[in-house]
Amino acid sequence: MIKLEKSRKLSGGKLLVYVFLSLAALLSLFPFYWMFVMATSPSSAYNSIPPTITPGSLLVENFKKVLNQIDFFQSMWNSFVICGVVTLVVLFISSLAGFAFAKFRFRGKNIFFAAILLTMIIPPQLGLIPQYFLISKAGLLDTLPGVMILFFLNPLGIFLMRQYISESVPDELIEAAKLDGCSNFRIYRSIVLPIILPAFATLGIIVFTAAWGEFLWQFTVLRDPENYTIQVALAQLSNTRNVDFGMIMSGVFWATVPLLVVFLFFNRLFISSITDGSVK
């Protein structure tokens, strides 16, 4: 009887958890659903009372309007190039720096690490003017490298990698590799990398989505429409006197779909990487 009562309590508690998680998921997904509804509706539906909650039939027509206003696919390609390069470079630099801070002893290590963490509390808007001046002097204005270079050093990535490597990579394993004559980079490549794949997947999701959603710096640096990212290109849709909300939402919707696909891909990689890392 006691076991039955405990199982009923547990099942009741699990039911409440599932109900809460289901409601939270619905609330999280509703903005995406509303965006899809607006992307399939005329502009007048944006301010309609009561609000429109069912999809319309203008998804293709609204997207054609987007294609007539901006070079959508070129902008998407520019965004993929920027996000892909930034993600790969951040993963490489952050994992190397995290490995150094976690497993090596050198003078000033704690001071350098604290200085890196302190940069996380500085609002990025404060560095906009000096960063623009440096990029201008380097001749990188209105170029994709000028957009990328500021995001190569990621304090959050270094912190995450340092914490993960400290807990997941045994010191004895590194000492054994050194006794076998392995260089530091070979230890990083052959021992550390296979273990930190789960952290790679997690950090990759964070960096890619953050780079995709970046707008202020891209809007400041880029001038040529051929170099526009999707965020800057979509901002041009609202520069007309009569704003077509259906067209804007259609552009936002189609610009979000590739990001969701990439997120799902990295999410599956994250789950499989946990298994691979535990086995290794």
Give a description of the structure:
The structure is a single chain. The chain is mainly alpha-helical. It has 2 domains: 4-11 and 15-47; 70-239, MetI-like fold. It has 13 helices and no strands. The chain is globular and about 70 Å long. Residues 275-280 have low confidence and may be disordered.
Write the layout of secondary structure elements.
Blueprint (H helix, E strand, L loop, with lengths): L1 H38 L19 H11 L2 H32 L5 H10 L9 H10 L6 H5 L6 H14 L2 H9 L4 H12 L1 H17 L2 H6 L8 H6 L9 H35 L1
Helix pairs in contact: 1-13, 2-13, 3-7, 3-10, 7-10, 10-13
List its salient traits.
280 residues, mainly alpha, MetI-like fold, 0% strand
Give a summary of the structure in a few sentences.
The chain has 280 residues and is mostly helical.
- Mean pLDDT metric: 83
CATH architecture of the largest domain: Orthogonal Bundle
- Distance separating the two termini: 44 Å
Please state the overall shape, judged from the principal axes of the Cα atoms: globular
